[in-house]
Specification:
5-stranded parallel sheet; Rossmann fold; 388 residues; 16 helices; 2 domains; 6% strand; binds zinc ion; alpha/beta
């Protein structure tokens, strides 16, 4: 289990967090904003563990409300040892580490499937609805905590909360029951309602440096060429890089680029079949690996991952067409990029990159995979706009 002192590459965010926690009136509602996979979730978990710990470490640290800790938390930038830490031994820490803490609530849109209401269970979980917020945040927040240290709620993908859901949550954010703390994770705070934002303290998590991501991936036994690719492709997201690398996406990316570069045009029936088959393989593997993942969610994620690889390839085509091949994402296949780029002028390449971004929204609709990928490839050939 990661502690606050273990979080690296986010010194500014942690400095802000630790300083606010050590202030006279520490916030009880937080927004952690930033791209996925840069440490927001890990930080939220570590903060929750510390908040719930019965004996948080005292050295240079304490917790608001503890007599010894009234003024002691302020850590220096980069000085991770000064960050507060959970003891790791008390009943609360042990329960937290085993994932069974009754006062820790990880809230996701997928919780809808555990709702008491059969209608809510049946719904497709595109957003985080009011029913989930009522049943899994507002109601348990009112209950007495199990271990007497309050309750911590971490709301993942908080930007997916509907307007209704956010309005229902306002009162809890404004005046939570004693000991209740809420952490909202989102990509950017602008995606939340102003009323939600104004009730929370904001901590921004920046994308990680590509060199840092690369180094961490190599440390996780990923081959250097692949590590370098993910560090550039994932825009500073370590978590995302690891997830995609472990799912075998690198081999798919290599084959995708080779196949695209080998053909005189992208809109090829066999290539469409290949995209459909790979997306289905990925989706099936995801469902097999985690029973929490529904088939629909897995299909959407697999499609999104394939689209992202393709977008990375065409960003390189655009860079090459613009005469800037120095900063390729797919530097490991520079020759294939050059071959593919030879087919497009600058305008068309820019159009393709822009059009590819629009396919993401289609993944939630019930579009036949073959139709989807055939259309994507027509776009990759002629920059024809989305027509499904
Ligand atoms: Zn503890």
């Amino acid at each position: 289990m990661v502690e606050l002192s273990d979080i690296v590459g986010q010194d500014q965010a942690l400095q802000r967090l630790v300083a606010a926690m050590g202030s006279q009136r520490p916030p009880h509602a937080w927004i952690f904003a930033g791209p996925a996979g840069v440490g927001r979730r890990t930080t939220a978990w570590a903060l929750a563990k510390w908040l719930l710990c019965a004996q948080p470490a005292a050295a240079g640290a304490g917790r608001p409300g503890d007599i010894a800790g009234q003024s002691g938390i302020a850590g220096r930038s980069g000085d991770t040892a000064k960050r507060p830490a959970a003891c790791g031994r008390c009943p609360s820490c042990r329960a937290f580490d085993s994932g069974t803490h009754g006062d820790f609530h990880a809230v996701t849109k997928e919780l809808a499937r555990y709702s008491e209401d059969p209608e809510v269970r049946k719904r497709i979980m595109q957003n985080l609805g009011i029913e989930v917020v009522r049943e899994f945040i507002i109601a348990p927040a009112r209950r007495t905590s199990t271990l007497g240290r309050g309750r911590v709620f971490v709301i993942q993908e908080a930007e997916l909360m509907s307007e209704q859901a956010q309005n229902a949550l306002l009162k809890t954010l404004e005046e939570p029951p004693p000991g209740v703390r809420l952490i909202l994770l989102c990509r950017t705070e602008q995606e939340l309602l102003p009323t939600t934002r104004s009730r929370c303290a904001l901590v921004r998590f920046a994308p990680l440096e590509p060199a840092f991501v690369e180094q961490k991936l190599v440390a996780a036994s990923i081959e250097p060429a692949e590590a370098a690719y993910w560090a550039r492709q994932s825009a500073g997201s370590l978590g995302e890089s690891l997830r995609l690398a472990q799912a075998g996406l690198y081999a798919i990316k290599r084959e995708m680029l080779e196949r695209l570069a080998a053909l005189p045009q992208s809109a090829d029936a066999e290539l469409g079949d290949w995209f459909s088959a790979k997306a289905e393989e990925l989706s099936k593997a995801a469902v097999g690996a985690d029973e929490q993942v529904s088939a629909l969610l897995a299909t959407r994620r697999a499609g999104g991952a394939m689209l992202a690889l393709l977008a990375g390839i065409f960003r390189d085509v655009l860079a090459a067409a613009a005469g800037k091949p120095g900063a390729l994402i797919n530097a490991d296949q520079a020759q294939a990029v050059a071959r593919l780029a030879g087919r497009f002028d600058l305008d068309t390449a820019a159009q393709i990159v822009s059009q590819l971004g629009r396919y993401e929204q289609l993944l939630w609709r019930n579009v036949n995979a073959k139709v989807l990928w055939d259309n994507v490839l027509i776009t990759c050939d002629t920059a024809a706009p989305l027509e499904v």
